[in-house]
Structures are given as structure tokens and as C-alpha cells.
Amino acid sequence: MAEQWRFIYKPNADIADLFAFPAALAEGRIAGKYLLSKEKLTDTLVILGMRRKGILAGADVSINKELAAVNSIDVALSPRSGKRGAQPVGTLQFQELISNAPRTFKSVPVDPEEPAVLLYTSGTTGLPKGVMLSHKNFYSQCSQVVAKVLPLQPNDRVVGVLPLYHVYGLSNGLISTIYFGCSIALIPQYSPQTLLETIRTVKATMLIAIPTMYMHLLTLARARKTEIPKTLRFCISGGAPLPLSVLTDFERVFNTSIAEGYGLTETTSAVSLNKSGDNYKPGSIGPPSSGVEMKVVDENFQELPDGQVGEIIIRGDVVTRGYWNNPQATAETIRDGWLFTGDLGYRDADGYFFITDRKKDLIIRGGYNISPREIEELLFSHPKIEDAAVIGVWDKRQEEVVKAIVVIREGETLSEKEVIQFCTANLAPFKVPKIVEFRKSLPKSATGKVLKKELREGYSDERLLDKTE
Amino acid sequence: MSTIPGLGELLQTIAQKFKRKEAILFEGTAISYQELEEQSNKVANALQALGIQRGDRVAIMLPNIPEFVYTFFGAQKIGAIAVPFNTMYKGREILHILNDSGARAIVTLTNFANLINEIRYDAPALEHVILTGQRTLVFCQPGSTAVVQAVFERSRFASADAVFHAVGEVLVQVLKELGVEDAWYKHQGSIRAHGKKIGTILLSTLENLYILNAVLFLDSLNADEFFKVIWVPPEIKDKVLEPMTSIREETGKIVTLEEFKNSFTVLFQEKFQADLTPSELKRDELFAYEKNRALAYRK
Q1: C-alpha angle A249/A253/A259, rounded to 5°?
Q2: Could you say which of B70, B129, B269 has the minimum Cβ distance to residue A90?
């Protein structure tokens, strides 16, 4: 039997109606239940069309109301949802969950070797793998690596601009801050202006950032000619090599000192640091930190003499015990406690390490590992794509970017824009190819393996070549 | 060598030592070690009350905000394993991490409720979706957006899933009638055509009521215009701007609100076994309506 419903149709509504209609209907119903109102309020359906442009925004969204008025956009704010507000089905509210929870808790005892965190990182085999990092891994990063190289003091103020979901921001930013009892200024979203402003307002003493950020800060400082904060007593750069000119200029302009770090998710962040000063060697990742062993080996796991290029391997308390639920990948990466980094390089006579190339088929962009395989597999799932290969190439600014080489199925048409849109729908923005090239076929070996070296011809990492002269 | 403390214990020890000293500086406010410790303890208690235990995985999909830190240390205090991941990730990337880690709970921004709901049935281990932050965002534009809202008794349906299913089916049928052959709807969340978003469904509960909010795109939305006047972090902008399509883009035809309404109401009456009577707000409701409009347009 059909139920009675009311139907409200308002083709000339505005943005506030979007919030006010359901709120009014719900309030009416709830009031009716308690007040025994005479009017019977039944279930109601509403269809609204807009007469003006509008934005309905949550309380934490910042809106320029003057600019909105100029652009004829109405702005409605939904109120901060309290305990009694409507909740999306099947979800819990963080604030509500903790508001009545007790303030004290005795930590459950843990085995320091147990994983405390899983951080997903891309390798060569496609989908990201969960790197298990234990309490001991983090503790060792603080007590061995950070404590020796840059002893933080409780009065230090660290800039937390790197995302906390990345090993570098989590380990060297957040957890080091807590370990040494410092303060961390959290920046939810990076922009050069926000970063500079934060350094200035909190009088930051420690900056942990990636090369791009140092370049941006330097550009901004030069352009602005305003007062440059000179409170930074120490900085670390990691994720990619920092050009020497940027390092020296930044140190001079900001009156600070930068150490370049090298590390992986698998090593709980840094394992070596190349500190500027008398012992600094341009192009090097520095000597291993205390508590960390590093060596260069050939394909038979034999240590190579100084100056010879091989794979860099690492052992120590900061090294992961492996990948979550993935013994095969673990066995391939860790042997006798030694982590195979996939980075090729050599050690000089002073014990400093240098990286010359990457063994693994991996793209690294802004410190994030990108697996070409993962993108290729997505492209293979496109009905109009016959074959595809993804490589990393260096753009004019010497940043590694993702390039897709696509073979279109016979009789089909496909544009660069369509390929990029398809990737955008399915991938985080940093993985989406910046360049798409269409070819009739891909160069392949006798065994059918795509010859990526040939695809890469014409591109080279000039930055790395410069540094290993 | 002395025993190594767990990360939860580490915070406890440091907080006892530094008490009122500032631990976190965020948007002009300072959070002391004592507050950080207490908030983390609250999260630990709350997670434990949800049944999360030592060794369980707790996913964190948050930008650098204090809730990240509270959740992280809250999880550490109960011996759970934190699984923080990139806020830029899309559906299939998130699904892989949720399933590979077997996370039982996720803490994320309110904005991502739809995104998580859309995939959560494919992540069987995930029991709890915990939302924080008030950064929801809806754009409307004349001729482009059709809004469907409903307020009704929860007892009409066996479950929220049943509601999603019914509404999703009606909207997909409407789209097909209007010429979008490829429209499909999987779970709670978005309606898609050729993989692109053509509509969204959000279902909320309040006491004994369900509150439904659905938006369907009749024509393309000029989102750039909206982003001139608001500021949201890129991970949110990116999801608002995820490839979208509209009836006009899919069919080349302009569909009016009137046509949409006619198609929708017929199919809705069938599917919901409803008898729709045109109406206006009643007295009690009008009062609440004016009050809420004033609240929404407050300066």
C-alpha cells in the first residue's frame, strides 16, 4: 500500500535552502513528536533548483566573503555540528567519541620489536607494500641518528611542514619532537608563504624539508626583500639531492646550517647525513650515522672496494624487519639483516657515500616513491589501450616527472587529455603522468620485456651527473 | 642497554616531565604536553571502547592537524598499529591499503565520508569510520545542479543500505531515462557515468529520522569560479574536483529541472511506494526554516 508523502518543489531556491529545508523538516518532526502538534507532519521529499550560484561550506572552510559577493556567489555556512546534529550514516564523530572518554590511560605494554606503524611505499612490483616500523626502529632513529647529528633541545621549535603520513615527517618531525620534548608547529597545507610565515611567527629553530621547499623559500625571500627570519639554527634536507648553490645561498640568507640526509621508509628515515661545514662533500649523502652500517656490494653480495659502484646496503636498529604480510618481498629486500636499497653508488676513501643511479624501476617525486608498474596496470585496464609503459623523465627544472608511453588499440582514438583524466580519476595527483606520448609499438626484448632504457633516451638526470663529476 | 619504551609510553614519560610546555603549535594556538597526553589518552580509551586491541591496525587519513597526533599516540597507547597514508589517495589506492593492512578503523576528514563509504563494502575488515573536521563543501549553480532532499522515518527501511540502494536505483533509472545509458551506482556515495562523478548521495541520521541529500549534475559546473573565493587544502579540492560529468556532457542534451523532477517523482513513487502530495512547509517548520536560513547566512 502506498504511503503518504509530502512533496515540496522549489525551482528558484538559493544555497541556504539546501541547509534550511532538511533542518526545518527534521526540527518540525522532532518538535512534533514531543509537543503533540496538531499538524501531522509526514515524510517529505524536496526537489530544489538554484536561482543563484552558491557554496554551502563546513565551519572550517575559509571563504573570502567579499570576493564571493563580487562574483555573485552566495555563501552559506553549515553550523559546527554538535553532539545532537545529523551524522552521516555508518560513521562516528571523533569529537563525540572522545568527549566523554577518560583523560587517563595506562599504556598497554608492548614488545619494542612489534610494529608500531605500517607505512605504505611503492616498489617495483606494483601495489604499495606496508613497511613495518617498530617502536625500536623509531626510538633508534631518535636516540642514535638524530641525537648524534643534531641534538635537539627542549626549547627547539620544529617546523612540521612535511606530511606526517610520510616517514620523513613522522620520524624526524613528529616523533623526534616528542622524544626530545620540543615543540612542533603543524602546517596542514604547504605553500611557500605559509611556511615562511610560520617560521617567522613561531620563531622556528629547526626546519625539516625537501629541496623544493628550500628553493621556494629562497625565491620568496629574495623577491620580498622583507625581513628574513634568522631563528633557524639547523635544517635538514632530504627526499632528493639539494643543489649546492641552493644550499649555500639558503645558509647565507637565513643564517643557518643545512645537513643533507639520506634514508628510506624502510630505514625509519635518515641513515646518513652530509653536514655543511669543514667535512661537507658536495654530492655525497655523507658517512653512515652512528648505529648504522652501510656498504657497497656487487651482485654476489660481496663488498666492493672504495670507489667502485655497486648496490648500497644498510644494517642497523633503524632497519625494518620487513613488509606486512609479504614474506616474499621481505626476503627479496632483506638478507642477513642487510637492507638492499636499490640505490647504486660508491664509498670514497673517507667513508662518504655517493649515489650514482637507481637499480630499481622506480620514480621518485618530491620524496614519494611511484611505481611505474602500478600506473601501467591502470593503463592496461583502459579498453582503448593496447600497451603502455611508464618511465620517469627529468623536466627542465630537473624534477623527475611521470611519462606514459601508450599504444592505442587498432581502430580506436584516444587523446592525451583522456589518458590524463582517466589517471586522475584513479590515482593520487603526484602519480598522474605529466607527459603522454603515443607510439605504434613499444621497444621490447626477445623475451617481451619493455626496454625502458630505450624509452628514456634523450632524457638524463643532469643533476646527478653534475654531482658525481 | 636499558629497555626501549613503546611510543605510547614515550609520550607519557615526556608529558610527565614537560607538562605545561607547548608540544604542538597550530593555527595560533599552543597545545601543551599535558593536553596532548590527555587527548591521546581519550583516543586510546575511545578506541578500546570500540573493541580495538593491541596489534589491530588503525588507518589515519588526515593532514597535519592535531587530531592526527592524538590518533597516532592514542593508537600507540593501546598497542595498536597506526597506518597513516597519503590524503591524496583515491578509491582504489585507499582500498588496497585498507585491505592489505586489514585496518579495523579509519580516522579521516568528514569530507571523505562519501569516498570511504563508497569502498567500505570492499574492505570487509573495516568496522569503524571516524570523522573529524568541518570542511564539507557543496557547490550549486543555476541550470547545473538538481538537489533532492528527503526527511523520513528510519523505520520505513530495514537498513541504511536499503535506503542507499533505493535512492541509487531511482537516480540511475532517472539518468537512463534522460539518456545517460552508462550510469551506475555501486555502494553508498557517488553515481558515476564512464567512471566520472555525475551525482552524490549523502545519508544522515538524526533521532528516528533519515535525512537524505543528493545532488545530480544536469550541466557542467564551473568549479574554478568557486575556488576563487574559498580556500581548502588541495586534498579536499582534488576530491571535489575529481573528474565530473553531467547529463549534458554525456548526452549533448540540455535537461531542465522540470524534466528531471517529472522523471524523478514518478520513479520515486514506484520505488518508495509513496503517494506524493504537493505541499509547502507548515507553521512549525516555517519558523525553523527561517531560523536556519538566518544561521546559514550569518555574518
Answers
A1: 60
A2: B129
In a domain? residue A347: yes
Instruction: Report CA B68 to chain centroid distance, whole Å.
Output: 17
Option in B25, B140, B208 nearest A54 (CB) = B140
Distance, CA of A406 to CA of A414 (rounded, Å): 10
- Mean pLDDT computed over every residue of chain B: 92
Report how many domains make up chain B: 2
Q: Do B129 and A130 touch (CB under 8 A)?
A: no
Q: Backbone dihedral region of B139: left (phi > 0), alpha (psi from -120 to 50 degrees) or beta?
A: beta
Residue A82 has what pLDDT?
A: 59
Q: Return residues 50-109 of A near B (CB < 8 Å).
A: 50-65, 67-68, 71, 73-81, 84-95, 97-98, 101-105, 107-109
Task: Say which residue, A394 or A36, is predicted with more confidence.
Answer: A394
Residue A175's pLDDT is 98
Same domain, A212 and A305: yes
B155 touches chain A (CB under 8 A): no
- Domain termination site, one of B97, B132, B167: B132
A452: CB partners within 8 A, 6+ apart: A361, A372, A389, A391
At A226 the pLDDT is: 67
Residue A175 lies in a domain: yes
| A201, closest residue in chain B (CA to CA) | B28
CA distance B167 to B286: 27
Q: CB contact, 8 Å: A418 with chain B?
A: no
User: Which of A290, A325, A358 represents a domain boundary (last residue)?
Assistant: A358
What is the distance of C-alpha B26 from the center of its chain? Answer: 24
ipTM above threshold 0.85: yes
Is A460 a residue whose pLDDT tops 60?
no
CA distance A292 to A351: 13
Q: What is the mean pLDDT of chain A?
A: 88
Cα distance from A422 to chain B (closest Cα, Å)?
8
Looking at B83, B100, B132, the residue that finishes a domain is B132
Q: Is residue A301 part of a domain?
A: yes
Look at residues B64, B91, B86 and name the one whose alpha carbon lies nearest to residue B242.
B91
Give the pLDDT mean for B69-86: 98
**pLDDT for B1:** 45
Q: Is A464 at the interface with chain B, CB within 8 A?
A: no
| Range with lowest mean pLDDT among A17-31, A154-168, A290-304 | A17-31
Is-above-0.90 flag for pTM?
A: no
Nearest-Cα residue of chain B relative to residue A428: B89
CB pairs under 8 A between A and B: 480
The predicted-structure confidence for B187-213, as pLDDT tens digits, reads as follows 777 899 988 889 999 899 988 899 999
* Full residue range of the structural domain in which residue A89 is found: 6-99
CATH number at B233 reads: 3.30.930.10
Instruction: Domain of residue B203: give its range.
Output: 145-276
